[in-house]
Design a protein that fits this description.
Lysophospholipid transporter LplT; mainly alpha; transmembrane; transport; MFS; cell membrane
């Protein structure tokens, strides 16, 4: 592994740790309210995602036309500002939206720099390390963040601000890297043309649509569990929910470690199998009624998700670097997957407002994911042979 990947792994770990600590801090703030409303947590997730959709035409080009290592610094500073607004009691929906702006800028720079550091042959392995580091950060960030937030939300927010600043400082050790001259003209029209060009490639379509389904399901599962766990497992605080979803994170780490041997870039189509398994485990979760069976189901759900998303991310970065730019490809991926996440989380928000139970929501989500994955695979042509320059 390239020595330059180590500071990226550390910076990503710290930033992702803070991302999840701040999420569970906000959840703790909501749960501590005397009269929490069922739609507020899904609404928080939605405002975070809005930035990815609205800013998609700009953040990819910004990441490609500037040193990505420096873009990571700017993104972390924006996240720290959002956490600071929460610390000063600004409306959480607005403050968390600012954190989402930083995350929208961070993502294309983080994934876009990987092809520069790892090259084609090391890209899947580098992605597995990044995903493993990210999920380890999610695992520890949500547990430590939830426990600290249950003790003091102010101290939790101060800690997240410090982590964002340390992450920003760590990226100073990354090489400046490649830059593209920024194109002239309307960024929205350029983004439309890039999307149209990129989706002409069958493997790119498969990766974009598949990743969108995965993240839509993952976002929806996370917000459903917050309502499902107190109802079925009798959990009553942010720490209990964080400890439950820890097993989901461990599963994703396990899947990320396994995937380089299972699904190389030349066999991307294999990724449909873990996508099917993930949908089955979502349905299975709705039938569990005790903590340990739920933990096992979440572990295997996470493992299937990790096996699926790592090669999909690697394929998008590889194809993007060869066509529209790796940062542009990641921004385009973020646009599609966050539109899908907004639709899924927004749909659940409406369902929760109409008193649909979390159990019914899990069953519906699993069935929808299973059917949608089948349709995506069914309507896409066979993957090009490995001799193709884009294969």
């Amino acid at each position: 592994m390239s020595k330059h990947l180590y500071p990226l792994l550390l910076a990503q770990f710290l930033s992702a740790f803070a991302d999840n600590a701040i999420l569970f801090t906000v959840i703790a703030m909501v749960m501590q309210d005397a009269h929490p409303v069922s739609w507020y947590v899904p609404a928080l997730q939605s405002v975070f995602l809005v930035a990815f959709v609205v800013l998609a035409p700009w953040v990819g080009g910004f990441a490609d036309s500037h040193a990505k290592s420096r873009v990571l610094i700017v993104a972390n500073l924006i996240k720290a500002c959002g956490a600071g607004l929460l610390l000063f009691k600004v409306e959480p929906l607005l403050a968390y939206c600012i954190v989402g702006v930083g995350a929208a800028l961070y993502s294309p720079a983080k994934y876009g720099i990987l092809p520069e550091l790892a090259g084609h042959n090391g890209l899947v392995k580098a992605n597995s390390w990044i995903e493993g580091s990210t999920i380890l950060a999610i695992l520890t960030g949500m547990v430590v963040g939830a426990q600290l937030a249950d003790y003091s939300t102010s101290w939790a927010l101060i800690a997240t601000i410090a982590l964002y600043l340390i992450s920003a400082a760590t990226t100073l050790f990354l090489p400046v890297g490649l830059r593209k001259a920024p194109p002239s003209g309307s960024k929205i029209l350029l983004f439309y043309r890039e999307v149209k060009t990129f989706l002409l490639m069958p493997r790119a379509r498969f990766a974009v649509l598949g990743a969108s389904l995965f993240w839509a399901a993952a976002a929806c599962v996370r917000v459903i569990i917050i309502a499902w766990a107190p109802l079925v497992l009798m959990t009553h605080n942010a720490s209990d929910i964080a400890n439950l979803t820890l097993f989901l994170a461990i599963g994703i780490i396990a899947g990320s470690v396994m995937v380089p041997r299972l699904i190389p870039l030349e066999h991307l189509r294999r990724a449909r199998i873990p996508a099917y398994l993930m949908s089955i485990f979502i349905i299975a979760l709705s039938f569990t009624e005790a903590v340990w069976p739920a933990r096992f189901v979440l572990f295997f759900m996470g493992m299937a998700g990790g096996i699926f998303i790592v090669p999909v991310n690697a394929a998008l970065q590889d194809l993007g670097q060869q066509s529209i730019g790796s940062g542009g490809a990641v921004a385009m991926q973020n646009f599609f997957q966050n539109v899908a996440m907004l639709l899924s989380v927004g749909g659940y928000t409406l369902a929760a407002a109409e008193q649909v139970t979390p159990i019914s929501a899990l069953i519906g989500l699993g069935v929808l994911l299973l059917v949608a994955t089948f349709l995506v695979v069914w309507h896409l042509p066979e993957v090009e042979p490995a001799s193709s320059s884009l294969e």
